[in-house]
């Protein structure tokens, strides 16, 4: 478990460094056309909000999410590797290019942050920033960034501003062993969340909703 987490951190560092070194070279994945994506994303707006800031918390916010993360998960819904009846339907007709365009569109939007529960924020912040070494829980900021903006190149998803119930739901699924798709990065969260208690998950999720970064 430690080895896999360390590998993840290492990849994260590598990605950051190569980005700095090769600022002008092509990104390591296809870059979509945000303008074309705006039109293609109109149908998504009914649930996710036209600018990716869903009002109803049962639908995750997509605003400010990295394009690579959004397009990867659209592929996973389409292939059925991530199971969800609604999203299977909305991804079925999308081509790979559509997914990259839509990803680019939402990446260019700004996530509106919510308000963290004051009784939970301190515990959430401590775990987010420091992890818990004795229990093998890594600091979340190592991958998701101090402000929850993620790392678009790996991609490590942005988390700031997300509806708390959605983040908590995802963390419980990962704790139950959910792995979407393949590769070391896909399996990382099942390791991370394994030891989290319900209370810790709720505290982290609430903290994230109030975090301003993306
Ligand atoms: C009828 C409502 C609805 C519509 C329309 C819809 N979605 Fe979703 N979407 C959902 C729900 C519900 C989820 C959470 C599914 C789950 O738990 O896996 C979701 C999840 C997602 C996720 C995963 C986000 C994350 O952070 O994990 C992405 C990406 C996504 N939708 C993109 C889209 C795109 C792009 C469109 C338009 C082509 C779209 N959705 C249209 C309801 C909808
Ligand atoms: C080693 C890197 C790493 C660390 C450390 C890490 N994460 Fe993640 N996290 C990821 C990756 C990679 C994904 C995307 C996994 C996937 O595609 O299913 C992710 C996904 C998530 C998601 C789902 C986002 C969404 O939009 O659906 C949440 C919530 C999350 N992480 C919270 C946390 C919390 C809380 C911690 C600290 C306890 C943490 N992560 C620590 C790499 C990491």
| Termini Cα gap | 29 Å
Strand % is: under 5%
Helix segment tally: 11
CATH architecture of the largest domain: Orthogonal Bundle
Spans of at least 5 consecutive residues with low confidence: 10-25
Overall structural domain count? 2
Shape estimate: globular
Helical amount among residues, as a percent range?
40-55%
- Helix and strand sequence: HHHHHHHHHHH
Indicate the radius of gyration in whole angstroms.
17 Å
> Helix/strand/pairing class, anyone?
mainly alpha
If you had to describe this structure to a student in words, what would you say it looks like?
- The model is unreliable at 10-25 (pLDDT under 50).
- With 214 residues, the protein is mainly alpha-helical.
- Helices cover 52% and strands 0% of the residues.
- The two termini are 29 Å apart.
- The protein has helices spanning 2-21, 34-40, 45-48, 67-79, 85-92, 96-107, 121-130, 141-144, 164-175, 184-193, 198-209.
- The radius of gyration is 17 Å and the shape is globular.
- It folds into 2 domains: 2-16 and 113-209, Orthogonal Bundle (Cytochrome Bc1 Complex, Chain D, domain 2), CATH 1.10.760; 34-107, Orthogonal Bundle (Cytochrome Bc1 Complex, Chain D, domain 2).
- The structure holds heme C (HEC) (2 copies).
- One heme C binds next to helix 3, helix 4 and helix 5.
